[in-house]
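Example record

One chain of 71 residues, shown exactly as stored in the release files.
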Amino acid sequence: MAIRVNLDVMLAKRKMSVNELAEAIGITPVNVSVLKNGRAKAIRFSTLDTICETLHCQPGDVLEWVDGEGE
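Predicted structure tokens for this chain:
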């Protein structure tokens, strides 16, 4: 997969833990960790919207396309 998830970077910038984000967006900490660690196969736009609203960022701050990664 050539999509890199930079959620860990955004959490560090906002000084927020996985548990705090999970509580704020209404999903389990396990699901936030799956997304943060790049193991998620998909993300709902509504979840991405809520993450961006909570972290005051753009979708491109959380997700990044990288040429050739994961080949």
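Notes: The chain has a mean pLDDT of 93.
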